[in-house]
Amino acid sequence: MTRLTQTTQWQELKEYSNNLPHMRELFATDSARFDKMSLKACGLLLDYSKNRVNDDVLGKLFSLARGCELESRIRAMFAGDIINNTEKRAVLHTALRAPAGSVVNVDGVNVVPEVQATLAKIEAFVDSITSGKWRGYTGKAITDIVSIGIGGSFLGPKIVTQALRPYANGKLKCHFVANVDATSLVEKLKLVDPETTLFLMSSKSFGTQETLTNTLSARDWFLSTGATQADVAKHFAAVTSNVAKATDFGIDAENIFPMWDWVGGRYSLWSAIGLPIALMVGMDNYRALLAGARAMDEHFTSAPLEQNMPVIMGMLSVWYSNFFNAQSHVVLTYDHYLRGLPAYFQQLDMESNGKSVTLGGETVDHATGPVIWGGEGTNGQHAYHQLLHQGTALIPADFIMPLQSHNPLGEHHAQLASNCFGQTQALMQGRTFEEALAELASSKLSDAEKQLIARHKVMDGNKPSNTLLMDKLTPATLGALIALYEHRTFVQGIIWDINSFDQWGVELGKTLGNDVLARLGAAKEATELDASSNALINLFRQGHI
Ligand SMILES: O=P(O)(O)OC[C@H]1O[C@](O)(CO)[C@@H](O)[C@@H]1O
């Protein structure tokens, strides 16, 4: 089989990447550029006109996608084929939001009924907690949830409850504990009353050190406040695919919510891992979130590649990673409720596409997943936008903004939007030396100083960005947005022929960490490792540098 970088499409794209006009010119010569390069789907509008593309380049990118059999690979994922080849698993986070009555078979068994049964269990649990029917060991209703989990068992629930704060029912407070640093747990325990707190332990494997340690310490704390082991069942629940381990841990079987090995951790907020979301915003809004994601699934599986939002975004990212050596990609959310979303997309994309061998085990000869980072606008403009505008690295940017605020107040939202749109315009058009010099014409600087300052004010522009708009941030538009990025990540993995759904790279650190843990507590000093590791271990043992 021809290697990706040897294909005709790849070679032609390489040619184009060196010969494209500046975006300023592309806009100047085509007044319909926005109309041609914008797309609406599932309550979102994607403006991809501020990219280094023309019709030919887009055509070549779609041709490359077809050459990689993208359409059939999409169908294979949704059909439950074993596409996670190293763990021999299907990849079916999409089944979690499939309509009741759908058929999605895993090993010949339709999994949708079990998914729906779990949703019903979640609904009953949410109702019991939020109605006050569920009572703690002293007969009081639950007021606080402490959600313990890490990675995909933490980021999804945390980010989505934050984003959907306007939809919170106000009946509960939710606290998230992830890091094994005791501070993460201790600071939260200061905020809660053991008599009215439910601890929700979320771990697909039920084997993650941080989550187990935090849950054990939370249980110790709970028992230290006067409760007994018999009271644990009223204050601890678990979400896991390892029900036996959870039962052994002492979680009442009735309070264990299943998840399945065909749901990757970073794709799991649509499963019972999303319980904190349902508890905070109610089942109707949680179902609306799922429905938004389902709408994006239907778009992804039905729209032609040329009109397919995840495909367009995924192929543009391939374009910059592989033909412009873009090493990172920035996500800028111009909405305070969405301030956590870049971190969520960071895990989603980097843990999926941070790979360097193909499905067949060959070392890739091209770049794969970029570094994903970002933050909320307009804060980033006062932190890292200088580098975006005048640095030496090309960093494609996604700007995400609702057109309507949940908190309309005077000029605020108009100013937010003006910053968002102004930034994409500045990145695209830049500022020429002549423009910079003209701006200095009336200054009192000498001609030599004007020339020098003008040089420092030049911005090359031609910096690509996508702008994603929605009318309002709602459970449905948020669900569609997250599913959009899930499928954008999938598209890139297909082009690069990598496995986006395993994460062997996180295993070694865990294994070595367990060995170091044993040495930290050993009777004698560490001497058998490398000089640095020995020294670091022994410094910890002595407790001072
Ligand atoms: O849900 P678990 O099994 O505790 O895993 C937590 C996280 O650790 C990872 O396995 C590795 O980071 C993630 O994929 C996962 O979301």
Automatic annotation (TrEMBL):
It holds the Pfam family PGI. The active site is at E351 (proton donor), H382, K510. Pathway: Carbohydrate degradation; glycolysis; D-glyceraldehyde 3-phosphate and glycerone phosphate from D-glucose: step 2/4; Carbohydrate biosynthesis; gluconeogenesis. It is an enzyme of class 5 (isomerase). Gene3D superfamilies: 1.10.1390.10, Glucose-6-phosphate isomerase like protein, domain 1. The keyword tRNA-binding does not apply. Keywords: Cytoplasm, Gluconeogenesis, Glycolysis, Isomerase. The keyword Cytoplasm applies. It is found in: Cytoplasm. It comes from the Bacteria. SUPFAM superfamilies: SIS domain. PANTHER family: GLUCOSE-6-PHOSPHATE ISOMERASE. Catalyzes the reversible isomerization of glucose-6-phosphate to fructose-6-phosphate. This is Glucose-6-phosphate isomerase. It comes from Shewanella jiangmenensis.
